[in-house]
Amino acid sequence: MIAIIDYGMGNLRSVQKGFEHVGHEAIVTSDPAEVDRADKVVLPGVGAFEDAIAELKRQKMVDPVLRAIESGKPFLGICLGLHLLFDESFENGRHEGLGVLRGKVVRFELPDEYTVPHMGWNQLLIRRRAPVLAGIEEGTQVYFVHSYYVVPDDPSVVATETDYHEPFCSMIWRDNIFATQFHPEKSQAEGLKMLKNFAVL
Fold first, then answer.
1. Which partner from 88, 121, 131, 173 sits 20 to 30 angstroms from 157, CA to CA?
2. Which domains does the chain have, with CATH numbers?
3. Residues 6+ positions from 72 with CB-CB distance below 8 Å
């Protein structure tokens, strides 16, 4: 069973429909016990980092997230779900994250000709071929919408980069943890392929 964590800040149904489209059942849940029972866990998210951490704590979801990761079960973070895994975010102040991965979340500082948020289709530059990238070609276009991005302390966790004036980390992979800045559920056939790859891990 794939559990998609519902903490009130995510494109939950589109992620669920993405898994269903590739033939894998996924439940949307805010029940810590269901997250514990799941074979795989997904942490999606759209919105502000500070609010997201507050909601995870309020719904007593922090420990289930950490237990899922520590148990070794496949774990997928999407967009804000990637940011939350890191030590700290500088979105509207400084806020502590889950601290699963060392590093920070920072805002794009770009020349005037670049718009923030970074929104739309952009290419993946594959640095390490994570299992969820099986069958995904270098330069594949995926869908982004974000103003902040992660800067890992350990560059070896970077699976893909994407260029927006300068390269930024667009996917991380460490052991059982996979997390994307882009939205695979909005990235058409190639994104669905990644969801399927995750579902069969």
1. 121
2. 2-199 (3.40.50.880)
3. 175, 176
